[in-house]
Amino acid sequence: MRNAFLNQLSILLLGATALFSSCNSGAGKTGSSDSSATKGTVKIGVLHSLSGTMAISEVSLKDAVQMAVDEINAKGGVLGKQIEPVIVDPASDWDLFAEKAKELLIDKKVSAVFGCWTSVSRKSVLPVFEQNNGLLFYPVQYEGEECSNSVIYTGATPNQQLIPAAEYLMSEKGGGYKKFYLLGTDYVFPRTANKILKAYLLSKGIPKENIIEEYTPFHHQDYQTIISKVKRFAADGKACILSTINGDSNVPFYKEFANQGLSSATCPIMAFSVAEDELRSMDTEFLVGHLAAWNYFQSNDLPENKKFVTDFKAFCAKKGLPGGDKRVTDDPICWAYTGVYLWAKAAEKAGSFDVSKVRNALYSLDFDSPDGPVKMDPRNHHLAKPVVIGEIKPDGQFDIIWKSGGLVDPQPWSPLTSPDKDCDWVNHNGTYAKK
Amino acid sequence: MKTKNNTLLYILFITFFAILLPAGYLTGLLSVNTISVWGRYFCFAIAALGIDLIWGYTGILSMCQAFFFCLGSYGIAMHLLLKKTVASGATLPDFMAWNKIDTLPFFWQPFHSFGWSIVLCLLIPAAFAFIVGLVLFRSRIKGVYMAIITQALTLAMWLIFLRNETNLGGTNGITDFNTILGYPLSSSSVKLALYLLSLSMLCAAYYCCYRITHSKFGKVLQAIRDSESRVSYTAYKVTDYKLAVFVVAALLAAVGGMLYLPQTGIITPGRMDVKASVEMVMWVALGGRGNLKGAVIGALLVNFLYSICTSLFPDSWLFILGFLFVITVLYFDKGFMGLGDTIRKKFSATRLKTSQTH
Amino acid sequence: MRTSLLRMLMCCLLLPLFSAGQDSASIYTAQLLQPPADSVRTQAIGRLAALRIPATFPLLMAINDKKLYLLDNKAVTINSDSSSKGTYQLYSLYPNNTLLINSSGQPLLLPLSALKTVDIPRADRLLLAGIAPLLNLFSNDPQKRILAYSQLKHTSDSITLRILKAALAKESNADALRTGKDALYAIQLYKASSATNANAYIDSIADNWSDNAPALLRDYARSGFLNQETAQYAAAKAVLLEKRYDNLQRVQHFFSGLSLGSILVLIALGLSIVYGLAGIINMAHGEFMMIGAYTTYCTQLLFTKALGIPQTDLFFFFALPFSFLMAGSLGWILERLVIRHLYAKPLESLLATWGVSLILIQTARLLFGDLTAVKTPQLLSGGWQVSPHLTLPYNRIFIIVLAMLMVLFTYLMLYRTRLGLQIRSVTQNRQMSACLGIETRRVASITFFIGSGLAGLAGCAITLIGNVVPDMGQTYIVDSFLVVVTGGVGKLAGTIVSGLGIGFFTKLSESFFQAVYGKVFILMFIMLFMQYKPKGLFPDKGRIAED
User: Fold this and answer.
1) Which of A108, B279, C207, C502 has the smallest set of CB atoms within 10 Å of its CB?
2) Are A216 and C515 in contact (CB < 8 Å)?
């Protein structure tokens, strides 16, 4: 009998905790609509990994969102309401991303979600947002070929980053390179990026044998074999590397590159996934002189940007975040920050937090971002912005060596690989076939 | 008395999950999200039962259960994706069209039919487990060697699934489904139905495992765990027994995976990386190995904690989980289920003392 | 003899060139520095670019690099790296390019603030793009010169050829000289009018053997050849060179395998003795490596920030023992608190140490934030150039040597000391050793100290090739377990053989497959291998009962 009693007790405890949590979420559900009306707050979700492999990159984005929220709140909030961020940790676990997205949308009833970094996390939450009519602000450059009604892509599409970089390298000024080694980590962004790059290079008359494509797994550390292949490839001096190597593989890659006697003068590396935040505490010695293409660099000398950079450093120091005032800004941080402002401005314009009204208000919306004025596309959910190419300096900053003339319009479907498709939510229903 | 106490436990479990939770949802007290979250935990619990059979009862630490789980999930995912592709009028899933593939790879073909998909989801993991088991058990690899080899196997499979050339979606895995058997996955009633299906499958799996462990077959398994050589001296074919239980465990993992997919909506290789495969074993360790109830409760509890902690303590949940693992292994080697016994022993000891003093 | 003749010849050729352009160049230079109007400056730069007078190249290059300054109205430029006080050495630009010295004969050092920057607009700088290779021929940076030489390979106009020869005569860097000669021979080869001449140039190219030589010869054989015979001769030479290159590549692969193998051995060494002695699957072993790496990072901080000794390699050599001690002591503490209770339960130890590794990773993340990296000591960056086509990076050589030393150390410890004897005895039979009066618990904690310390040392070494992230240990943990299992538990020789074997094998398969399949292939191979050697390469001999 005693045994039975104890077992019952344990199962009851389990049940009670479960019920507690369920009621908790249930209460949250009923309570949120009331509280947002009476207390004058509006909830937004922050869905960035704070632990696991992606934490390295994503924590900074959470900080940027938090800073934008604080700034807006200090100015009186949106539509007279204070923004209340709900921060959750999807722990770099793609399934958990979907679960947390459901929690934010269904239980917490947030008005918009700011989050995701990897394309797998975005793909994981996409059905959730579409089914529950949510709105996700996605701040990272991505592979395109997507046109969801529920995502606001503030990061770059391939034509806003890849093509200008390749064009620059082929130009007289950029060095007139004729051979291209496309090297990436094996996941969807590098694969798609390289497909587009290859199509572009072929269309510019680069012969097939002068383009090599290669992929390494995540966290690859040993680049000896690949560098010796590159060395052979680069022997006649007109070769460059277009690198979509991600995260912690970059340091071993650049170190091996330098140690085997290659340098930026003989074979420059144009990186699409290396930004100031990653360079912050890397040993930049081996990276100096190599290139990167983005839409924003911290070294941009606009007054808006100077203020943004100082504010961000001050924010991190004040909140006691790791790094403090040594923190830097970079492209995704800039767009994560801009995303919050875009949402706030759209909500003000729409006069409501309703997802479809905000979405409609976002078309053609312009905003003075730290990167200068940027503008939402009039027909889809991407952002038109400038393209910049920078050279890595020893302090981990970039020397801007090329800048696009004006804003570059986004092309979610690259005309090089999907010439028949386009993305339009105003006159069409998302992706449609061009005539 | 033992049976009576178990019966009470079962009744409580069923009442809570089969009646109270759905009722809570139907009355609007709980959101549908809570329901499907628990539905997903049940799938983990099914896989945990398999791990308990092979580790708790037979003493073989297999680290490739996560892989079998994923095989089940991938099978169903392929079916659902093909259904969606056909419904939208395309011939190829989106990601393949982007990867410049023009015909559907041969191994995708059978997944057009739901029946075949189910059969293959069970057959492939079973066959895989059979071959791997045959190779490993025949050469008498056991203990730590077994754990590391199976872990390496999972790692190898993980690397292969990560590749885009394998046409299984690479890192992104397979996602974005509409319907299952014609019913929309986004509707609440389908979610509830899947929840109830998972629950009943869990009960069925539990019943099967219970029968297995209480049969002669089960006794032999426990004998192998306690002393493999003595069992083989008494003319039992140890290899055959181990192989059989390994296949059963793989099947259970696959069933869990199959039910897991429609409730989660995505399957990626991330489900079978090193971390995931160690965690699966951890559920059983925490619940109490060699105890079927423990496996179920461990899986439910750990995942529940994981969900809660990542929302409430984003910074420190790893500490909580880590300490829990260490402390469980150190002090409650029978897991949560053993915790009751330990307390009872202490409890009765003090009571004995008090009765003696009186 | 030949070179001096060449140089004389060149002087004769260049002299008239200099004098002819001299006057106009001075005028344009003056216009450029103090232009009455922007259009005049644009025109001046355009004219200078068109004239291509070597004497003006330093000036034009300074413009191209945005490093043109005025000092007392004279054009100067700075060298690329500043001294510690933020001052720069200065060079005059025109008419002669020399280092400026002060009154006491020392190089003149001035900060940027003392100079007046000459701003040349981007549009004007673009005018120089056409002659950029020619300018680069006179750059201070050998890499730029190499690039310039290789760009000039296909020119045929005589002025460029003369300038190329002039630059080659001054060339001091071996690599640049090789590329330069290559370009010169190539131009001459294409101009050769007789088969003997052509063959002579082909021989020269082959002897010179630059990176590009085979491609060059093959191009020649395919098009532009003089007659069938020279084409065949060039093709044959190209094949010969390729073959020699392939041989060198084999050496490179061998070295890569050796270096990967040494890393594996270094990591697996500690794991192997701990696992052999205590039967513990230490999933936190990778995290001790991480601790070693962070200790190295902290040592660097200590030296640069606290002690104020920047720019030395000293910190790294201090970091080696530090990381050993740090990881070792933490391992010792872990043994005392957790592992001690798990000696009878090897499989549970896997779970508990996994929990420990989660805690350690999160602690590192909270303490150090995210990505950090250790500065590679100057001494260990770069590589040893065995031959022009074979560079062996110093950092990898260092790791190989370190691995050898550690193996030696472990061997001596295990087989030449009393402690080693005790460790070996406990490894073989814990109870029996205890009966014979060995304090098994003490032996176990010392072993754990050494094992974790070795992991820490491996972590310190890994900072040379990779970066430092909180979960860096997880990248290596399964691999190192495979090494231990393949080699046989607690066997020093087994660990070495299997670590090196897996290293070589991985590199070998990587040269055929892509990196991932190489790894999968290895894993499959090990599984099959275990069919024949279920207890690893060097199993325990004897009839120890299994249960």
Assistant:
1) C207
2) yes
Query: Which pLDDT band, with edges at 50, 70 and 90, does A187 fall under?
Result: confident
Q: Which of A55, A221, A251 sits opposite C370 (nearest CB)?
A: A55
Question: Could you tell me if B167 and B206 lie in one domain?
Answer: yes
Q: Which amino acid is at B137?
A: F
Q: Which of C362, C464, C514 sits opposite A214 (nearest CB)?
A: C514
Q: Does A62 touch chain B (CB under 8 A)?
A: no
Mutate to test the interface with C, among A182, A229, A230, A236 (most CBs of C within 10 A): A236
Statement to judge: residues B350 and B202 lie in one domain: yes
Contacts of B55 in chain C (CB under 8 A): 347
DSSP state of A81: B
With CA atoms as reference, the chain B residue closest to A122 would be: B172
* Domain A162-271, CATH homologous superfamily name and number: Response regulator (3.40.50.2300)
Which of the listed ranges B330-339, C262-271, C536-545 does the model predict with the highest average pLDDT? C262-271
Q: What is d(CA A363, CA C482) in angstroms, rounded to the nearest whole number?
A: 56
Nearest CA of chain C to the CA of A408: how many Å?
A: 22
Q: CA C209 to CA C182: how far, in whole Å?
A: 8
C260–A222 CB contact, under 8 Å: yes
Better-predicted residue by pLDDT, B72 or C274: B72
Distance from CA of A80 to the nearest CA of C (A): 36
Q: Which of A10, A95, A106 sits opposite B340 (nearest CB)?
A: A10
Angle ∠(B208,B213,B214) on CA atoms, nearest 5: 100
- A162-271 matches A36-156+300-385 in CATH topology: yes
* Total tally of structural domains belonging to chain B: 2
Contact between C523 and B227 using a beta-carbon 8 Å cutoff: no
Q: Do B126 and B16 fall into the same domain?
A: no
DSSP letters for A362-391:
HTT-EEEETTEEEEE-SSSSBEEB--EEEE
Torsion of CA C30, C32, C34, C39, to 10 degrees: 130
**Closest residue by Cα to residue B198 from B38, B65, B71:** B38
Domain extent for B14: 1-29
- Is B40 found in the same domain as B11? no
Q: Which chains touch C (3 or more CB pairs under 8 A)?
A: A, B
Query: Is CATH 3.40.1180.10 correct for A36-156+300-385?
Result: no
Q: Which chain B residue has the Cα nearest residue A195?
A: B99
Residues B48 and B150 in one domain: yes
For C473, the 3-state DSSP assignment is helix
CA atoms of B140 and B146, how far apart (whole Å): 9
- The Cα–Cα gap between B82 and B80 comes to 5
Is the complex ipTM more than 0.95?
no
> Per residue in A206-263, pLDDT tens?
999 899 998 888 788 888 888 988 988 887 768 899 999 887 788 889 888 888 878 7
Dump pLDDT digits (tens) for B213-264.
999 999 999 999 998 889 989 989 999 999 999 999 999 999 999 999 999 8
Query: In chain B, positions 45-74, which contact chain C (CB-CB < 8 Å)?
Result: 55, 61
Name the nearest CA neighbour of C334 among C421, C432, C455, C430.
Answer: C455
Whether residues C358 and B145 touch (CB distance < 8 A) is answered with no
**Strand A82-88 versus strand A136-138 pairing type:** unpaired
Among candidates A51, A285, A322 on the partner chain, residue whose Cβ is nearest the Cβ of C362:
A51
